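task queued by scheduler; priority normal; single chain, no ligands, no partner chains; default sampling; output format set to structure tokens
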Amino acid sequence: MLKQDNNLKPRELYLNQLIAFQDTEPVKVVTGIRRCGKSSLLKLMRKHLLDNGIQQDQIIAMNFESMEYRSMDVQAFYEYVKGKVLPDKKMYLFFDELQRLDRWEDAVNSFRVDFDCDIYITGSNAYLLSSEYSTYLAGRYVEIKMLPLSFKEFLDFHGYDVRDYKTPTGELKKRAYDSSGEMVLWEDLLEAFVHYGGMPGIADVGLEQDKALALLDGIYSTIVVRDILEREKRRGQRQITDPVLLRKIILFLADNIGNTTSLNSISNTLVSEKMLEDRFKQGKPAIQTIASYVGALQEAYMFYEIKRFDVKGKAELKTLSKYYIADTGLRNYLLGYRDVDTGHIIENIVYFELLRRGFDVAVGKVGDKEIDFIATKDDLKIYYQVTDDFTAESTRERELAPFMAVRDNYEKVVLAMNTNSTASIEGIKIVRLIDFLLE
């Protein structure tokens, strides 16, 4: 029975992707960091089906976080679903956090072969789509990559209303109002988004520091324990065995979002700053060990790696990547809120906004200069520089210099949190960060 939830907020970006693949052969796999809204998305999809004529008994929904299914093995899983399948009717199968069940891919593959069904699954670890699973389905799945709330979604989830208005000069702008009808400054709303992050559960507890931190603590603990440490046990490889080292690496990456980073620099910094325990005094953890831990954090969708691209040489550079954290609220939970990191924090926000919009993103290298982001999608390419303040002459020169070194005709954009002008400079667009996030 579908549990009714009248408080579900729409996530149209992702729901529309699921609807587009409804009743097609590929298994729909929704991936993303723990608690980013994957389970709610499946509920929204089930509601869509019911609203469009699908009967309740055609839907089978199982959440493997529930104790109801915790002791189930793959054969029992298959038999349970088989017992609920209706003859001569199309079935819609929804499985949450399926990576908790060993050999689940055997059952899913059998469902595809044995029944007339449409399958939707979620997972909080990229191991769900490992080579083993890919072999079983041989490309017969489509991945929906889900992220925490965008700024626009954050406003909606927290009850802010965005309205257009026309200035006396005829320019169309936007204003935000709270639930009581009071106008709210964009600066305050963006600060709240940076501070609390985009985990949907924050909307349930409200924008209160203690409650938000308690929720984020639970999310963090679940990521570390269930999606990394427990997953390693089930995987049987036991590469991630030291929770203390894992936390140190998490803190390092959280503290260095937007900085060029190598596995060597992580190891060296942890040793030099005495962030490791006594057992490493005779040496430092091997680079392979650091790589395993960083890889596990990426598989849990907590950190994303972005590669550097040589614009003139037109080649990906193999060294010195950057890392961004999936949610700024998690970063503030780990490190405490610090307004001195504004530049890298808004870079973090822009990076994930570009991912939401379907871009592949790289850092651009032009000689000794750097372009914050090269965003590509099909035949579209856009260069972005991101800055907190574009009012000082020295800042303008620094941000524009990498663009001046690129002699192609692709669009070039400066995204500025503070700017006293949005007039283009030598063909380079100057755009307020708020306007970009509200597009």
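post-processing summary
- Residues 338-439 form a domain with the Trna Endonuclease; Chain: A, domain 1 fold (CATH 3.40.1350.10).
- DSSP finds 16 helices and 15 strands in the chain.
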